[in-house]
DNA sequence: AATGAATGAGAGTTCATTCAT
DNA sequence: CATGAATGAACTCTCATTCAT
């Protein structure tokens, strides 16, 4: 660390105004893109508008991102997949009970992502993924899989520590994910799908808590329930 | 009669090909449009492809529908809003308990619509509604409002017959709707959002049953629960 | 004449209803076409609308006229060029002075054509002729040339009878035609070009009379006037 | 300085090709559009052809003008309505007699506009105005009204200075305008309406002069003439 | 590095004309 | 004869992407 080349670190310490702009550009563009992708979707967002909102010209956008799809990937990396190392670190560091961990994660997730523009990306992928196979694949690898893995690790921890009964993992992961996805959709479905007045009746934090309670209730030895596939001893 | 040569008078019974096509066209086009709208979304579906899939030329499509938006409206009318009169008739005719009615409706809905291409329309509106305000308004009026009304009538019946406790209707309606919407989304989110293998773990019928059970459990006098807003005596 | 074949003449005497329609069709179509051509121009008039206004289907129109251009030609023939034989006959029969003849012709023309939908055809050709060379040629041959010829004959009669001085014919013909054309344009220039209130100030009959008076005043030996090209002894 | 190599600082003086084009484009496009509108009319002129004639691609046209109608408006502004401030300034500055002013204006108008492609716009509006109501309205406001106002001011000046008798303004304005409009039509009616050979017989300058003479003759107290409506004391 | 003018493939839509019935 | 369903070329306008400056 202390032996890094001087030039780069000089710049890092006292960047010229011009330089600072330059370094900031990709982030500013990705931020503008996030806004617009969430607002209009991927296909309906025009590259020029992203650039304008970031205060640069259309050409500059393509200077930093080779295509609209690359821009989208950057948005995902910066806002979602980039966070998994922290999530995983937090997982390692946590030392309470697994039900507490699950509750804690859910709360953090809600604050960091669910209750944020970022949740619009989930909705976007749901709606447009099929039309942009490369993005779908990217999202699978960068978001879906790490997320599933993380949840799986949490659940497995509960099983390993004897807090949870043995689980049909695929199903259990999904049970955790479902209410999160649903909430994200709800948050971005203004006039299109619900009378906003009615949609706003649902208090997200309470909804998450109740769903979590139900899930946790299912994470112990019980006879078959409607939530359980025939034959699976437990969630 | 059955062995007579085809007369002109048979025309009424077996319309000439020319005429039969004419009557069939709108339906064929709407069917092709449903397929493609569900597959690609509204904006990404090209009019010409709808026509081609219906076996006609681009011009023919516009012979029957003045615009792509009108085509979409026809798809909605034909597949969703047109069915509300039947739903309402069935509501009137039913004479079991209201919990039974709710279960019955859910089952029927799943067979008729949820477990069908039609459910893709819900997803489509969720994703693209904001970009097509006229369609969003149409969908609100033709689908959302009648659906909400129907559910509300069912719940109110339960209250009126003393089966359910007094309800905060807006919230209760939404509680019924939420799992239905979620399922529809799930069904049309192939590679985009979940490892299909995992998504398929969820058995829709069981999911619906379990959600219904939870809802029904909430439909009687109880103290405040996480599902209940502060102060509301019941779901 | 008396020996003509019976079949055709039977039909001519007592045409079946069906037949009568059939014979009337071309005229009805041409009449509808005249209305619409005058109202919207040639290019902007849709074949289907002509058919609808004539109470037949689009296909029927093309049964009687091979193309929109042929339809236009029929309109011209029926309403303009077909009248030249009568004009010429009247020319032969007239036996007053030539100035009187000119006045008489102008008046008749105003009643028969100028003050009529037909005048819209002149405007139409002026505006769209260049875009439809075949129609332009047809109109030249069927309308412009006969009209010029007729006027020329009238003027020549005046010269021959010693009523007019020798004329530079091309120019003189044009002097007669100009106010007629101008009036026709004015009649079909609603809101597009003049405040209708103002345009209506001009009384066509008086305008024609005054122009005629000026022209007639020019039809005798005089020194060069502004209306005369340098060197031409007279109009 | 004149022999120095081109520096960057020369840029302001001799803008780079790239930039010069940008400033020039709208004008080039409007010029090409003027040519084609006059040649073929508004509806029959294809956007792509305008672009091609201006040496750019279809997309470039719409970079500068939001629609074909906006392009037309720009043509009108650039070639006609933009000139009214100069006309009005010249009106203020002129200090000869009003008949002289009228003659002078007519001459200038002929040089600047009548004897120019621009006169084709008048013909175009006459022919197509009804089919493009928004353009008709624009033309009314930007051309017809200012033109009428200007002529009215000239005539009123004559009245105020005692050179002309009191006038029925609406009618008088129109008397001045009529020959101007007629000439413009004539100039753009090649093969469509007249044997070009014949049309060319009319010498525009002489035609204008003669018409002006007639009008001026009418601008003094006289008993009713054919040019005067019954009851109006003067033109 | 940054610009923004330029491109051109394609989208929805229109309409004269054809032809099976 | 009459129909009107069907066609497909043509039109205006959009936008991701390129590239000269």
Structural class of chain A, by secondary structure, is mainly alpha
The number of E-state strands of chain A comes to: 0
The CATH first-level class of the largest domain in chain A comes to Mainly Alpha
Shape annotation of chain A: elongated
Between the first and last Cα atoms of chain A, what is the distance in angstroms?
48 Å
- Order of secondary-structure elements of chain A: HHHHHHHHHHHHH
User: Low-confidence parts of chain A lasting 5 or more residues at pLDDT below 50?
Assistant: 1-15, 221-235
Major sheet size, sense and barrel closure of chain A: none
Measured by residues with Cβ under 8 Å of the partner chain's Cβ, the largest interface is: A-B, 56 and 56 residues
Radius of gyration of chain A: 21 Å
Number of helices of chain A: 13
What is the percent of helical residues of chain A? over 70%
CATH third-tier fold name of the largest domain in chain A: Tetracycline Repressor, domain 2
- Overall average residue pLDDT of chain A: 82
The overall number of domains of chain A is 2
Give the name of the CATH architecture of the largest domain in chain A.
Answer: Orthogonal Bundle
Strand content of chain A: under 5%
**Oligomeric state:** homotetramer
């Amino acid at each position: 660390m202390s032996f890094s080349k001087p030039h780069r670190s000089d710049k890092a310490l006292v960047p010229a105004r011009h330089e600072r702009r330059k370094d900031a550009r990709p982030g500013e563009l990705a931020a503008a893109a996030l806004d617009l992708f969430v607002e209009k979707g991927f296909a309906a967002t025009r590259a020029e508008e992203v650039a304008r909102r970031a205060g640069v010209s259309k050409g500059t956008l393509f200077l930093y991102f080779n295509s609209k799809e690359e821009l989208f990937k950057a948005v995902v990396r910066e806002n979602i997949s980039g966070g998994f190392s922290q999530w995983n670190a937090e997982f390692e560091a946590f030392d309470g009970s697994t039900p507490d961990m699950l509750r804690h994660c859910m709360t953090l997730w809600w604050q960091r992502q669910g209750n944020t523009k970022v949740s619009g990306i989930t909705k976007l992928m749901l709606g447009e993924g099929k039309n942009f196979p490369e993005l779908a694949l990217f999202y699978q690898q960068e978001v879906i899989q790490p997320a599933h893995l993380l949840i799986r690790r949490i659940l497995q921890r509960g099983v390993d520590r004897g807090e949870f009964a043995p689980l049909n993992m695929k199903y259990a992961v999904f049970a955790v994910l479902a209410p999160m996805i649903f909430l994200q959709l709800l948050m971005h479905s203004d006039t299109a799908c619900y009378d906003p007045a009615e949609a706003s009746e649902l208090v997200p934090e309470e909804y998450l808590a109740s769903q979590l309670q139900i899930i946790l209730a299912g994470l112990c030895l019980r006879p078959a329930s409607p939530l359980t596939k025939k034959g699976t001893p437990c969630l």
